[in-house]
Amino acid sequence: MARVLASVRFAIPLILLATVGLRSEPSAVGQSASPDPAGEAAVVQAQAPLPDATYVGESRCIECHAQENRHYSETTHAKVFRQNPAFRLQQFGCEACHGPGSRHVANALDRTAIIGFTKGWGTEVPVQNSMCQNCHGGGTRMHWPGSAHASNDVGCADCHNPMQRVSTANLLVRPTIAETCFQCHPQQRAEFQRRSHMPVPEGRMTCTDCHNPHGSVTRPLLRADSVNDVCYSCHAEKRGPFLWEHAPVRESCLNCHQPHGSNHDKLLVSARPYICQQCHNPPIGHPGQFYRDGQTAAGALMGVGQSARVIGRSCQNCHTQIHGSNHPAGARFQR
Fold first, then answer.
1. Do residues 223 and 194 make contact, with C-beta atoms less than 8 angstroms apart?
2. For the chain (length 335 residues), average pLDDT per consecutive 10?
3. Which end of the chain is more exposed for a tag (fewer CB within 10 A), N or C?
4. What stretch of H or E contains 68?
5. Residue 278: CA count within 13 A, CB half-sphere
6. In sequence order, what are the residues at sequence separation of 6 or more whose Cβ sits closer than 8 angstroms to the Cβ of residue 22?
């Protein structure tokens, strides 16, 4: 409850920032922006997350943080804030994100005197995120409240590093999107190492091709309304509509496939024919017993009878159109 109240307490000033006329003409390129006590800067001062502090200017920050400034100067944030700020708040440079710094200058050991963006600093995650949302609101982030990441106190700074250019895009904390996600998702990292996997390790796709880390209407943060819709964005030939539909395919691709990686062919959850036999029991269709490993080509070497229905693509040797068929005689997905 305390965390909720804190997020509400800090969200109200941010809303006011957007409604009291903060936006103004950008300053000249390279011109340092200093607070104007008689103008709109006074309004900013009154509504800042640290209301008892005053702005001291970016030059005061650089006096102690020269190393950070060297890294920060290479980032998109620095170039925008210093050369072409979109509105008044961005002209305050470091203090646009960290809040007014007079209390921090007076006592650098007081962690409540400024907003920090690390786990060890102590600033509440909703407060950190609210500062980012001053500029990065709406769009793909409109579903952030209530999302899996927001509910688990994931901060913007857990994935992004606005102070240093570590990645080629998006100011990530790791060189690639996948490496950033793997910080918290080791299970998915292991699945991508299996012999059949989505081409994420090869760099041909990224986690964000399927997921929206900033929020979605779905629990796994998918970029579409369902798993199938995500898969169809690349596998359009499986979409249909088909004259003869395969029920588990229509229900969910995950009935047969692992989304990240599998040790079976085609990311299957089980090897063929056993994946088919989970639904198709012997009395239906082909008579006789379940196909077993002794009927494979390897089993034939041990003197066991080999079955042509087990080797190769197994059931799909005959039922080739397993995702659906539009052939008038394709009721068994053979055409």
1. no
2. 44 39 36 40 48 89 94 92 91 92 92 90 92 87 91 94 91 96 96 96 95 94 96 94 94 96 95 84 58 64 66 83 94 90
3. N
4. helix 66-72
5. 11
6. 40, 43, 44, 87, 88, 89
